[in-house]
Design a protein that fits this description.
332 residues; alpha+beta; eight-stranded mixed β-sheet; 15 helices; 42% helix; globular; binds fe (iii) ion
Length: 332
């Protein structure tokens, strides 16, 4: 709808009295409509503030924000993965926000230290194994999947996906580049098949017996389990005696050239509140970032785990190093 706004019309909107113009927020969202619309509708009901939005993939939305510069109609960017949020912040399209509410609702490791973005939901990237061919005691860490005992038994999603780039970036942050490269080389040697285009295909390969273990975001496991309740797969929480499970976020920031910055910040604060967090996380079977809010019943049933406490910002900072490392290691 926004793309039909002509410059003259956009200018006219800016001339509206402040009270009228701050009763709306314009959002660019890389999260699907089905995941954000119910929340925005509720926000409008409660506050009278209209939320207009467009949805697209993370890359095109960021390019659009950069190209529009100060003319952008967007007040807020919602996207997934700390790598993408980091790029948006580095690209200069997000404003620094200082808010005691956001700082109380979002743990420090799940937001930008400069306040340019804040996690809205937490996702865990963990192991999924075949309950037919693997005992949970055979599994331990991400690093252990490089051990020759897993030769021909590992499936992975492609290294092109930002989720795996972030995972490898945190390996670099924790273990250094040399050790991280050894691990990734070990994974590649253990692959039973060429990397898959998505997490679901990798799990289906495990279920079908093509391999025994893979690494996925838990909400994909949740979706598959919902469709096939008796599927011969289970989740495993690795690195429980060391770094914890690799986590990432979906998150949002107020744009640098927001026309309604106060209204955008108020919406962001509400999205991290106890009122909104259960739905924001629950609609995609993710974990709330607000520690006062419990995950939904399906997600809670997967059990508790120790999560990595490294600031997810590191995943962005080391992302290009991770991409180069995976390339050297032959991980396609
Ligand atoms: Fe995803």
């Amino acid at each position: 709808m926004l793309r039909f706004l002509k410059p003259a019309v956009a200018g006219w909107i800016l001339l509206l009295p402040l009270a009228a113009s701050s009763s709306e927020v314009v959002v660019y969202s890389a999260r699907n409509e089905q995941l954000i619309k119910p929340l925005f509708d509720r926000y409008t009901e409660q506050t009278g503030v209209t939320v207009r939005y467009i949805t697209d993939k993370a890359g095109p939305l960021l390019q659009r924000l950069e190209a529009e510069g100060r003319r952008t109609p967007a007040d807020m960017l919602i996207t997934v993965d700390a790598g993408n949020l980091w790029h948006a912040a580095e690209g200069g399209v997000l404003a620094e926000v200082s808010s005691p509410i956001l700082e109380a609702n979002v743990p420090a490791n799940l937001r930008d230290p400069k306040g340019r973005w804040f996690g809205l939901s937490e996702r865990a990237r963990t192991l999924v194994y075949s309950t037919d061919r693997v005992q949970p005691q055979d599994l331990s860490t991400y690093e252990d999947l490089a051990d020759p005992k897993w030769r021909g038994r590992l499936c992975l999603r492609t290294s092109k996906k930002v989720y795996n780039q972030s995972l490898v970036a945190t390996l670099i942050a924790r273990l250094g580049e040399q050790r991280a490269e050894q691990i990734v080389r070990g994974w590649v040697e253990n692959l039973a098949a060429a990397p898959f285009s998505n997490d679901t295909k990798a799990m289906q390969a495990v279920a079908a017996g093509q391999c025994d273990v893979t690494i996925v975001n838990t909400y994909y496991f949740g979706r598959l389990q919902k469709k096939e309740p008796d599927i011969n797969l289970a989740l495993f929480w690795p690195n429980q005696d060391s770094s914890g499970v690799h986590i990432n976020v979906s998150g949002a920031g107020v744009t640098r050239y927001a026309k309604h910055p106060e209204a955008a910040q108020a919406l962001l604060e509400w999205l991290t509140s106890e009122a909104a967090q259960a739905d924001f996380a629950g609609l995609n079977m993710e974990y709330p970032v607000n520690p006062k809010v419990m995950p939904d019943a399906t997600v809670s049933a997967w059990g508790q785990f120790n999560a990595d406490t490294l600031n997810v910002n590191e995943a962005g900072r080391l992302q290009s190093a991770a991409i180069r490392l995976m390339d050297r290691a032959g991980y396609r």
